[in-house]
Amino acid sequence: MISGGFQLEEASFPTSGGRIVSGPPPDVVIYAQEPGSARLVEQVRALATASELAGAPVFALVTSGGAAAIVEALRAGAQDALSSPADLSELRARLDAHARVRSELREAQDALRSRDLLFDIFQEVSATLRADEIFQTLVRRVGQAFGLTHCSFVLTAPGESHGRVVAVYENPAIRDLSVDLERYPEIQEAIRTERPVVVHDVHEHPLFQAIRGRWLQQHLDVNVQAAVALPVFVQGRAAGVFFLRTERGDPALRPQDVSFADTIAQAAARVLENEERRAAIYRRQASAGTTDELTGVASLDALDRRLRDEFERARRYQLRFSLVLIDIDRLRDVNARLGQDAGDRLLTELGALLQREIRAPDFVARYGGDEFALILPETDESHGRQFVERVRRVLARHTFPDLGPSNSPAISAGVVAYPHAEALRAEDLFTLLEGALVNGKNQQPDRIGVAAKP
């Protein structure tokens, strides 16, 4: 029954059937001592330790014995105790306070479980080199953690009618399966809007109206309950989705579960970016190219060679240099508003601008879709930051035809200075540099991050 805004279930104690409650565990148990009963301690202890109550706090209303009986109830395991008859407003305030503490405790426990699960997942992933194995590990661990019916990674892009499934939790044998996206409106919507799509009931949500008609025509009994499609971005563009589905009877997906899955989706994005970067290096090495065709600056493999040379020179002769990574903020928005050609022209102009600003011994290369890396010999960390600020001032004065007057692109940056205690090889500098850029994106107001010192 409902009383005072609470869902209540009353029962005599002890119960004849052995069970105290018939449904799920309660949020709180209010024990009312029978007048003259001498079993207060025994009954409170039984309630406080009953497995079916799942640790729900016990409130004891003591009818006799005064303060001594209240002390006995608390010692027996009651969360709180009051003399009966109790003031209802005081009882309500105490219940609210304990409910608040219990809710905060649950949130803290969920956060700890998520942290431990993330640590376990990435520890397992760190021992895996192949991208397909990493994807399979991610879907398997998330599927197991949330008891999902379906969990997968689907690679696709805006405007495409088909997607490529690269990892499936419930069927690990699937590694490269083409699927018709008309059957998955949540995936199409996530790619189109570049936003997470969360549908709690596919049988009611308007997004599934057309596909429900097909289910009806084909006499399909679809047992799916909820669907989640989380877009995965690579170099500022949607490249696929992390796809979850539950069936009727499965545990409901909570907001914190979706948030956790989105964290995994971003990890997948980094895997895809690394794969794309490695593929780009391979292609450039195969063609012996040293210049990025779009921007005119050095290529990624040329950067790799130059950094190794600079690293060895600095190590041998005890010199210093800085590595700077500049990222164009919200390039994806420019592509969405003005088109891909406008975004490419912006990258070309920025590449030319950086080439004009560097000194003769400096080196600039295209690092990713919207990133440029620079090697600045004989430059420490503070001067590396000053270089980024100088580039910002030049950008502010420059007119970009596609953006219009007084509309310059914003940038974030990462800086790592060598020598650095964690840079034992040239490759280590790239890892430190990407971490510095992440720090920069999270820092206001200058959005310039530096590699953390050990």
Short description:
This protein is of the alpha+beta class and 454 residues long. The chain contains 12 helices and 16 strands.
Assign the CATH architecture of the largest domain: 2-Layer Sandwich
Q: Give the biggest sheet.
A: 6 strands, antiparallel
CATH topology of the largest domain: Alpha-Beta Plaits
The total domain count is: 3
CATH class of the largest domain: Alpha Beta
What is the rounded Rg? 30 Å
Helix percent reads 40-55%
Q: Shape, please?
A: elongated
Query: SSE order, as H and E?
Result: EEEHEHEHHEEEHEHEEHHEHHEEHEHE
Key attributes of the depicted protein:
454 residues, alpha+beta, Rossmann fold, Beta-Lactamase, Alpha-Beta Plaits, 3 domains, six-stranded antiparallel beta sheet, five-stranded mixed beta sheet
Question: Mind explaining what this structure looks like?
Answer:
- This protein has 12 helices and 16 strands.
- With 454 residues, it is an alpha+beta fold.
- The protein has 3 domains: 2-104, 3-Layer(aba) Sandwich (Rossmann fold), CATH 3.40.50.2300; 128-277, Beta-Lactamase, CATH 3.30.450.40; 289-450, Reverse transcriptase/Diguanylate cyclase domain (Alpha-Beta Plaits, 2-Layer Sandwich), CATH 3.30.70.
- The strands form 4 sheets. Strands 8-7-6-11-10-9 form a 6-stranded antiparallel beta sheet, sandwiched between helices. Strands 13-14-12-15-16 form a 5-stranded mixed beta sheet, sandwiched between helices.
- Helix 4 (131-146) runs antiparallel to helix 7.
- It is elongated.
What are the SSEs and their pairings?
Blueprint: E1 2-3, E2 6-7, E3 29-32, H1 40-49, E4 58-62, H2 66-75, E5 80-83, H3 88-126, H4 131-146, E6 150-155, E7 162-168, E8 177-180, H5 185-193, E9 197-199, H6 209-217, E10 224-234, E11 237-247, H7 255-287, H8 300-317, E12 321-328, H9 331-338, H10 340-357, E13 363-368, E14 371-377, H11 381-397, E15 411-418, H12 426-441, E16 448-450
Parallel strand pairs: 3-4, 4-5, 15-16
Antiparallel strand pairs: 1-2, 6-7, 6-11, 7-8, 9-10, 10-11, 12-14, 12-15, 13-14
Helix pairs in contact: 1-2, 3-4, 4-7, 9-10
